[in-house]
Amino acid sequence: MALITADRERFPDTPWQLVETRYDTDGAGTLETLFALGNGHVGIRGAHWAAADVELPGSFINGLHEIWDIKHAENAFGFARTGQRILYIPDVNNFTVVVDGESLSLAESEALDYRRSVDFCTGIYECRITWQCRSGARVTTTERRAVGYASRGSVGISLEVATDRQVSLDVTSSVINRQDQPVEDHSVHDPRRAGRHAGRVLLPVRLDGGDGSLRLSWEAAESKQRVGIAVDHWTSAGHQPFETLVDQDDSSVRYVLAVDADEPFRLEKSVSYAAGRTFQDPEIDAAAVAEDALRPVSDIFAESEAHFRDYWATSDIVVEGGRPGLQQAIRWNLFQLAQATARADVAGIPAKGVTGSGYDGHYFWDQEVYLLPYLTYTNPDGARQVLEFRHGMLPEAKIRAKELSVDGALFPWRTINGLEASAYYAAGTAQFHIAAAIAFATNRYLWATGDTGFRDGMGAELLIETARMWISLGFFGKDGLFHIHGVTGPDEYTAVVNDNLYTNVMARFNLGAAAALEHAEITHEERQLWQAAAKRMQLPFDDRMQVHSQDNDFMTLEAWDWSTPRSKYPLLLHFHPLVIYRHQVLKQADTVLAMFLQWQDFTAEEKQRAFDFYDPITTGDSTLSACVQGIMAAEVGYSKEALAHFTNAAFIDLDDTHGNTIDGVHIASAGGVWSSLVCGFAGMRDQGPVPFFDPRLPAGWDGLAFHLKIRGRLLLVRVSAGAITLTVQEGEPLEVDVRGQRLIVAGQAVQVHLEPVAEPEPTVFPSGLPTASIPVVRGKS
Hints:
five-stranded antiparallel beta sheet, globular, alpha+beta, 17 helices
């Protein structure tokens, strides 16, 4: 059921904000995700400040996690051994507001007026509520929040209480350890959701406080990572705290005073976090480090405003025309990308960013295939830092490769600390294609930036070690072709197969890119072997259907029963994996994704036939699918299908279409929204001789405009129904290709006329399985 689009009175269409104008318990946990704030390092969910009004509140620091030993019911060599899970850090977004003896909450008090918003322009959250108190007083509370950017561990919160008459006010500001509070382990019923630890996780190291200030730190019981927090309070008119209490799970500062109608009470809460491996040294006081980084609340708000002012100047994507609310959805997704990546620094990007604990805060291949395109062309320094983070995992990846009897480096399917954390190998370790994702993102970054230092150092190591893995994983068969067996591709509904097309296509790219390097570590024999494997890579093709097969056996599988009711989707929650594996049904785009990423390797006819065959049997149970299906629909020429898939992707979280947005934003899908606009409708393709554009603007759209940071230039791209206009706004002239026409683009706009793209006739495939024509022999009665 749709959330945002279902009630535009409650959630008005405002292109630069997400606004809620009426409180309702419907979707409360999902809205805590949608109104979350973050900077890639620290995140705070968009929960209300009163305990009675929250569903799944919390705050997170990227990479701060606990570990435990995975217990397999039936163990085997090489299974993942160490579980990892992101921690709920001590949460500062907690207030109790008591007016004339009444504790205000949306659950139990009368609210006359209500409005909350998150402003994409400033990164500031605001919630304003006017209460009709039982004492007769009319009170308005206004809470505002922001996270720091220059000071990435900072959070600033202000709470103002205004009244129409004198009232007795009692306000308590708390820091709550939510990690060790007993809650349900939702992962028991849904593997996409976060699990919980059985025992206590955060052990107190320092608990100090007084006069409205708190200095606290904890250590994770097993990972030994530490988190420190420093909190200072400031009040209008210099009100002193009534009491300051310190506890390992609930520390608080309380104010008791009279408030007059003409003098609102304002409380500012300045917070600084310090966390990570650095603080495992017992000589380092994490709380003291946090204290040194404390900033006034006004400075934190100013940092957020300055960051987003610069961000939108080059990262906004403007759609002219289109359905109402689409521009808001696009900007909300772009806002989430900024919040997930801006200050991650040398770290991975969790699947939910820092907005929730879904997928246990793990890093997947998502960041390389779905997030790094966005980062590479909007924040190339940020893209390099993610690749540096992957490079930092090479020692563990080389050890993991040996465990699986391959050379080079085998990166973990899901991880935080570099060790494999996926206990289900069929949909985890078997997805060897993560190696090619890292190599592909590396090559894209080098192509887009010309960063020779990274190319000759870390980049070369990533390409070489992943190529060594592929050449030892695969083999030359009796047919003379190079095969890769026993792998799982992106489509997790078809597992542990031979010659998965996506895997082979991406491995071929990886081997070729490594072979093209001029690097002293590559021997002549090794280079020749890589080139031969790439040249002779097996790419499954079904002669009867005249379409590339997802793997060697995919076309022999039984067709899925498409009369299965929608209540049984996603299939992974209602059918045993073995039931799904033996049917011809996809969780997400697989072969189609290969043809998008390796766009130069397939003909237009091959792409159309693949889209026509696979799109109808793709469930979209993965949030990574809609954007890719839309991009390829646009390239093929299916304008309506492209727009439908894109719209689906744009509203995945805003409408909670997959039912698990409560656990955090689907950050990779948000990255896919960026790619859908830039690569789908503007038709941008990279890693060729020059940047290539082949626009496919949907019917009804008047225009599309965005910037790309590419090879030291800032390129402005404007697409209309009949033309594309390119301008280099910063840097030297740039050569580009528009539908085969080479152009030199400089400071003066260059416009190219675009002929309409005719929609092709859909492919008609042979009906029935190859055995369908065998007559049924019935016995005599």
